[in-house]
Amino acid sequence: MVTIEAGAVAPGLDVQLPDAQGEPRVMADALASGPVLVGIYKCSCQASKTMFPFLERLHQQYQGQLSVFGVSQDSPNVTRSFARRLGLTFPILVEGPDYPVSNAFSIAATPTVYLIRPDGTVAFTTMGFFKGPVNELGDAVAAELGEDPKPLVTDADAGVPVFVPG
Questions:
Q1: Environment class of residue 163 by beta-carbon count within 10 Å: exposed (0-12), middle (13-18) or buried (19+)?
Q2: Contacts of 154 (CB under 8 A, 6+ apart)
Q3: pLDDT band, residue 1 (cuts 50/70/90)
Q4: At what angle do helices 76-86 and 46-61 cross, to 10 degrees?
Q5: Virtual CA dihedral for 43, 83, 58, 15, nearest 10 degrees?
């Protein structure tokens, strides 16, 4: 169960966090350009390792229309390694030991993913890794952007389990 439901105002987006290279970023700044997808995760979490390549697909499909951010609960070194291993090209922010974004969203498990509309409200949310909700996330992104939905999980993902515990 996610604690911030669709329709609620997304908290914690105005927090300034360093990205994995140490550059300060504020996710709320990206809302001026369109929807924002936020994935809060732990690098050691198998469900996060399974989910994040799908977030990268969304980033690649909708570059210029959708801003994607990972929010890592790990150190910058571990975070950079995670991004490199998975081939992630979207910005990864590092929370630090106080976990300001995770706490603002009151997440219960990782990964927790939020699609946030430009007005700051949550359009869609999912937690953990289930193939069904991953496709629903892709459909929600397409709907927010006024695009025809495309399956996010494809036949090429036959080896990806239906469910991965976090």
A1: exposed
A2: none
A3: low
A4: 60
A5: 70
Q: Which sequence spans correspond to the domains of the chain?
A: 37-147
Give me the residues paired with residue 37 across strands. 68, 115
Span 121-132, pLDDT tens digits = 999 999 999 999
Q: How far apart are CA 141 and CA 125, in angstroms?
A: 11
SS3 at position 77 = helix
Class for the domain spanning 37-147: alpha beta
pTM for this model (two decimals) = 0.97
Decide if pLDDT at 164 tops 90: yes
Which residues contact residue 123 at a Cβ distance below 8 angstroms, ignoring those fewer than 6 apart? 6, 35, 115, 116, 117, 140, 143, 144
